[in-house]
Amino acid sequence: MTITAPHTSTDIAVHATNLSKIYGAGTTRVEALRGVEVSFARGKFTAIMGPSGSGKSTLMHCLAGLDDASGGSIYIGGTDISKLNDDALTKMRREKVGFVFQSFNLVPTLTAEANILLPLALAGKKHDAAWLETIVATLGLKDRLTHKPHELSGGQQQRVAVARALLTRPEVVFGDEPTGNLDSRTGAEVLSLLRSSTREMGQTIIMVTHDAIAASYADTVLLMKDGELVGQLEDPTVESVTQALSGLGV
């Protein structure tokens, strides 16, 4: 199944064509992705869902350049990342991709502000002070910048991770179960922040989740099964997502 948003190419942040991923060989051969064709509209929040083993995490890792695809092409901001060498791929991820993981991935010895600035510091680049101030204000972190991770709640730590992901104005932010370690109330706050980043900052977000409530914050939900895209929901609700997952045997 081909999933293509009704937008022009200039409105597409990420695009994959004929994407495949194969693990093992012979009797252990597994097709994790089977000729996936998908486009993600710029400035939209998309959730990817499916049963365990459906290929949703593999798809995200390939799209983000964290894992090599076995075949096909992936474009981020017009760049075919499948043709990049390791150094160029590392630079691309640093400049064009943001990540928000379940485990926060903050450096415990650094302050919140230093954690936010870390990607640019590693790249030897200066940050845009006005943009940093905007992000910090939007995420409610102004009074927490001098705190280290152990001095922050789980929700505050994830806000720092979101701020870090947004700082470089990336083409896309990938979220891997970003609320998996948070309680429901804090998770809702983080999801609201992700959604507002698309609507107020024009950020493109692609999130993998198993949670129907989390998916309901997205503009679009893509459904996967057996390494293929098998459905799409627009303006999802908890009820519509739950029903769709039920149809996939989840």
Automatic annotation (TrEMBL):
InterPro entries given in the database record: AAA+_ATPase, ABC_transporter-like_ATP-bd, ABC_transporter-like_CS, ABC_transpr_LolD-like, MacB-like_ATP-bd, P-loop_NTPase
Listed GO MF terms: ATP binding; ATP hydrolysis activity; transmembrane transporter activity
Keyword terms: ATP-binding, Nucleotide-binding, Transport
ABC transporter domain boundaries: 14-249
PROSITE patterns in alphabetical order: ABC_TRANSPORTER_1, ABC_TRANSPORTER_2
Pfam families the UniProt entry points to: ABC_tran (PF00005)
Record CDD domains: ABC_MJ0796_LolCDE_FtsE (cd03255)
GO CC field: membrane protein complex; plasma membrane
Domain of life: Bacteria
Entry annotated with the keyword Transport: yes
PANTHER family: ABC TRANSPORTER RELATED, IMPORT ATP-BINDING PROTEIN
Protein name (database record): ABC transporter ATP-binding protein
Origin species: Paeniglutamicibacter gangotriensis Lz1y
Taxonomic lineage from the root: Bacteria, Bacillati, Actinomycetota, Actinomycetes, Micrococcales
